[in-house]
């Protein structure tokens, strides 16, 4: 695919959504085939040689283990560990609000491969909604197929959100990998009750992700997905970045909460990704004006640095 071409009919009819600079980024990073996967299947798996610069996955794994130990007093055992808690969980233990815990998570957000794919799906003003780690041990409860768009059917064709999952340990069916129904994003609807089950006797269109640690899984918010039960001892570890269009309400509130040192050590897009260019709710006209001025300061810095024009923040 040349930089003059777009891989979808939608892109061809709406070039303002997919500027030339985005195709340049995609080509420079060698992501053409993964864009094609996103269009055809609704998900893609980017291999470690592209998705894992400077041992990013190994460093994130160590950070997750360190944070778990700080929060719980016990370091998770990757080889023999189990998910903790009183309930049999199909997703395992979750650690939320990780972005500000370690600079390695800033790197995971600014990873060029993730940003190119998220931008392709949700535009240059996409923002981080949440950054969460999952540590999944053996379980019996099934994680049913669903979409992340979480609207009543029919769903919009264009992605309102997407998710990037860093695989910090190997993913396969026995390890409890994510499952997808390929092409389901095109159906623009949620699965009905008879279509949600995974595993034996479940939806026979669902397929497991088989990929090594260090890979990056990215998918459209409409794509039907769930996960297989883990059948072997130990923990499957991943880090999930939920990315949403800036007009949507985010799960985590980052506005005004990002330390200046984090803003200083990253390019201006980091501020946009962490919601600093979003105008939050206001209580009167003066409050609105102050919040618009603050947001516009970050937007202007990013536009000057990148040459990208973002939507007006009002």
Characterise this structure.
- By secondary structure, the chain is an alpha+beta fold.
- Helix content is 31%, strand content 16%.
- It has helices at 9-13, 20-28, 32-41, 48-51, 56-72, 103-110, 112-122, 260-264, 269-273, 285-306, and strands at residues 43-46, 93-95, 127-136, 143-146, 161-167, 178-180, 207-208, 216-220, 225-227, 236-244.
- The protein has a six-stranded antiparallel beta sheet with strand order 1-8-5-10-3-2.
- Helix 5 crosses helix 6 (103-110).
- The longest helix is centred in the C-terminal third of the chain and has 22 residues, at 285-306.
Keyword list:
10 helices; Jelly Rolls; 314 residues; four-stranded antiparallel β-sheet; alpha+beta; single chain; globular; six-stranded antiparallel β-sheet
The SSE order reads HHHEHHEHHEEEEEEEEHHH
- What kind of assembly state do the chains in view correspond to? single chain
Q: Write down the domain tally.
A: 1
Number of strands: 10
Our count of helices gives 10
**What fold name goes in the CATH topology slot?**
Jelly Rolls
CATH class: Mainly Beta
Structural class category: alpha+beta
Overall mean confidence score, pLDDT: 91
Q: What is the topology?
A:
Blueprint: H1 9-13, H2 20-28, H3 32-41, E1 43-46, H4 48-51, H5 56-72, E2 93-95, H6 103-110, H7 112-122, E3 127-136, E4 143-146, E5 161-167, E6 178-180, E7 207-208, E8 216-220, E9 225-227, E10 236-244, H8 260-264, H9 269-273, H10 285-306
Antiparallel strand pairs: 1-8, 2-3, 3-10, 4-9, 5-8, 5-10, 6-7, 6-9
